[in-house]
Design a protein that fits this description.
Layout lengths: L1 E4 L6 H10 L4 E4 L2 H6 L2 E4 L5 H10 L3 H9 L4 E4 L1 H4 L2 E4 L5 E2 L4 E7 L10 E6 L1 E2 L14 E6 L1 E5 L5 E6 L3 E8 L2 E4 L7 H12 L8 H8 L1
Parallel strand pairs: 1-2, 1-3, 3-4, 4-14, 5-7
Antiparallel strand pairs: 5-6, 7-11, 8-10, 9-12, 12-13, 13-14
């Protein structure tokens, strides 16, 4: 079962429909027990970092998310769901994230010719090819909407970069943990390919994330 976590801040139905289009059932849920029982977990999100963490905490979803990652279940973060995995975000102050990956979430500081938020189609440059990018060519365009981006401390987790006034990390990968700054569910055929690849991952891969969390 694929669970899409509902904490009131995501394009949930679009993600669910994306999985349905590629032949895989996914449930939208805010039930911590159902998340804990899932084989695969998706954490989407649109909105503010602080509000998202508050909603996840209020709905008692923080620990099920962390447990899924510790258990090395296939996990997909989308947009804000990527940013929340890091130590700290600086949107309207300083706010603690999950701390699964070391690094911070910072705002674009760009020349005036660049609009913020970064919105629209942009290319991926593949640094390390994760299995969910199987069949995706280097330079493929995906859809972005964001004013903040992740700055990992460990370059080894950077799967792709994207150029917007300079390169930023647009996707991370570590073991069974995947997360994208772009929106696969809004990225037409190539985005659906990513969702299909994720849905068809085996339930267990190298326990890199679980090991890393155990060492923290």
């Amino acid at each position: 079962m694929i669970s899409i976590i509902d904490y009131g801040m995501g394009n949930l139905r679009s993600v669910q429909k994306g999985f349905e289009k590629v032949g895989h059932e996914a449930v939208v849920t805010s039930d911590p027990a159902r998340v804990a029982a899932s084989e695969k977990v998706v954490l989407p999100g649109v909105g503010a970092f602080e509000d998202a963490m508050a909603e996840l905490r209020q709905r008692e979803l923080l620990e099920p998310v962390l447990e899924a990652i510790r258990a090395d279940k296939p996990f997909l973060g989308i947009c804000l769901g990527l940013q929340l995995l890091f130590d700290v975000g600086y949107e309207h102050g300083e706010h603690q994230g999950f701390g699964v990956l070391p690094g911070e979430v910072v705002r674009f500081e760009l020349p005036s010719e660049y609009s913020v938020p970064h919105m629209g189609w942009n290319q991926l440059q593949i640094v390390h090819r994760p299995p969910i990018l199987e069949g995706i060519e280097d330079g493929t365009h995906f859809y972005f909407v964001h004013s903040y981006y992740v700055a990992p401390k460990d370059d080894a987790v950077v799967a792709t970069t994207t150029d917007y006034g300079g390169d930023f990390c647009s996707m991370i990968w570590r073991g069974n943990l995947f997360a994208t700054q772009f929106h696969p569910e809004k990225s037409q055929a190539d985005g659906l390919k990513i969702l299909k690849n994720f849905a068809e991952l085996p339930e267990a891969m190298e326990p890199t994330v679980a090991k890393m969390l155990g060492e923290k």
